[in-house]
Amino acid sequence: EADIYQTPRYLVIGTGKKITLECSQTMGHDKMYWYQQDPGMELHLIHYSYGVNSTEKGDLSSESTVSRIRTEHFPLTLESARPSHTSQYLCASSGGIGNRGTEAFFGQGTRLTVV
Amino acid sequence: DQQVKQNSPSLSVQEGRISILNCDYTNSMFDYFLWYKKYPAEGPTFLISISSIKDKNEDGRFTVFLNKSAKHLSLHIVPSQPGDSAVYFCAASAETSGSRLTFGEGTQLTVNP
What we know:
The complex is a heterodimer.
Chain A: E1 4-7, E2 10-13, E3 19-25, E4 31-37, E5 44-51, E6 54-57, E7 65-66, E8 76-78, E9 87-94, E10 105-106, E11 110-114
Parallel strand pairs in A: 2-11
Antiparallel strand pairs in A: 1-3, 3-8, 4-5, 4-9, 5-6, 7-8, 9-10, 9-11
Chain B: E1 4-5, E2 10-14, E3 19-25, E4 32-38, E5 45-51, E6 56-59, E7 62-67, E8 72-77, E9 86-93, E10 102-103, E11 107-112
Parallel strand pairs in B: 2-11
Antiparallel strand pairs in B: 1-3, 3-8, 4-5, 4-9, 6-7, 7-8, 9-10, 9-11
């Protein structure tokens, strides 16, 4: 049973607002990820972290930023939201011993709508 | 350049029959492959995986086949059940890239009662 939580589940916000999407996991995983997904499209990796104080940009360029001050917490921040940021944001973690810890466990996602 | 492709956006099958979902990849460095299942407004759930040293992995109703020479993998679900209706994502990783996952576009499976 995966224990990774995202809040909020849904968010509708006006253009120009600053938002933070929360992600927490209780599995002690070192690796955490943020993916962005639009309907009918693949999941695009936008940020990842391999441990505390380690963050990297993913394959898809994003105006968001992330931080990893604690192992269990990996928040994503948009300083000034725009309609083009409307999407589903999925947080994941991995780090189990088996299969080099590749299986990623996902949170339920945050559906962001910027109006 | 999309490295993992699922060419069928949708698939419809009858309950009790076999569902076959396909996935192709281009990166020869990929050495681990996974299938995820996703319901609307939920995060993907891990289903089954296979290492490149194998050509088949089975877990209950789910079997994944890997053809390395063709850079192709498939997920077989038999017998299919209405509760299997979801979007299925194929994903791949390479140890050289820190095991980050690259996903396909997904295939919407509908199992009709």
